[in-house]
Amino acid sequence: MDHTSRPNMPPLDNFWMPFTANRQFKAAPRLLAAADGMYYTDVDGNQILDGTAGLWCVNAGHGRRKIAAAVERQLATMDFAPTFQMGHPIAFEFAAKLGQFAPGEGAATLDRLFFTGSGSESVDTALKIAIAYQRAIGQGTRTRIIGREKGYHGVGFGGISVGGLVNNRRVFPQIPADHMRHTLDIERNGFSRGLPAHGLELAEDLERLVALHGAETIAAVIVEPMSGSAGVILPPKGYLERLRAIADAHGILLIFDEVITGFGRLGTPFAADYFGVIPDMMTTAKGITNGTIPMGAVFASRKVHDGLMHGPGNQIELFHGYTYSGHPVACAAGLATMEIYQEENLLARAGDLAADWEEALHGLKGHPHVADIRNLGLVGAIELTPRPGAPGARAYDVFVDCFHKGLLVRVTGDIIALSPPLIIEKEQIATIVSTIADALKRAA
Ligand code: PMP
């Protein structure tokens, strides 16, 4: 079928789509044209329930007038101003506002903000801060970063080096890094509700890497407190606490990549709050502006910030930044977003809904090909047994089928991932589950 002859279909050749099998997609394009609340409308006029908050980012739901008005106001007042050796009030205001949400106490308070344009930039920034901090405090041999197998930390050279998804890494050079083991262990943990009981011993892999490389070569360890992009892998009970203890024992900074978990996904402002484990830095993006204007931020502790600024080994503070660090329009969108989160108590809402969400998702147990179901906060994953000889094909079919039945889910390998906007209602949770149940039956 020639899709360009479909009404409302633009020319498809020029846009080189990210993380997409371009040829397959362009043969059968799915284009979203409008969005409001919990729903998208596609170019053919169909309503599609957003089961993924866009790409884990539209936490307050679509089409928020307050954000649109703030953006419009800011564009009319001052469209752009640099933050290199210059400043503008709204960037400082937004940093101060974010600082109010920051976990930690005293020197561990994570309220020193470095602005970026995306999650990938936040990750690369945090890794550079870690290395620069170690050098500033007289630990200049610490340049290696430890990540995890299956970790996703964006697509910058830093992010892919510490990331553990092979397709993202295999053809590109990397910075010095190594990876802790990290497995799903469906045999022991299958169909766990919330955090899995088994696997705490995986944290000891950090000790193994310290013994292998020497603590004096390691600047930081970075993990997603709940890994999203690899298919929702939850930390075993006690795991993050143990990583914190090992990192402390060896002078290694702990970085939580909260690009997905930040801003209410687990029912607390950050996963750090949910787990009660305070890292030295958090990387964020996505929900920081409700997905509206591209932006990210690194939350650094006062210890890291002050150590870097005043440490004996520091010569140049931090030689790093982006044209769009603290972009005034993004800051305006972010301030309006934080107001919405507060006014509607949205950062706690995932916690209020978590029990219903868990119950509904686990109702899919026993459906054809369901190998595991995982949930935490307002995140879910349904893992399917692969079709023999065609890994990923079964989940992809379910994804396409759901789309045609009016539900957007995300698929990675044979895992269907869910992360709806935090404004979701219980009836919409039921719709998500029944639509997936029907698609699973058809796929069988
Ligand atoms: N880190 C994590 C944990 C992510 O989930 C993502 C994006 N899904 C990123 C980093 C990269 O963010 P971005 O796509 O905005 O660069």
Automatic annotation (TrEMBL):
Coiled coil: none annotated. Keywords: Aminotransferase, Pyridoxal phosphate, Transferase. Its cofactor is pyridoxal 5'-phosphate. GO terms for molecular function: transaminase activity. This is Aspartate aminotransferase family protein. Belongs to the class-III pyridoxal-phosphate-dependent aminotransferase family. SUPFAM superfamilies: PLP-dependent transferases. It holds the Pfam family Aminotran_3.
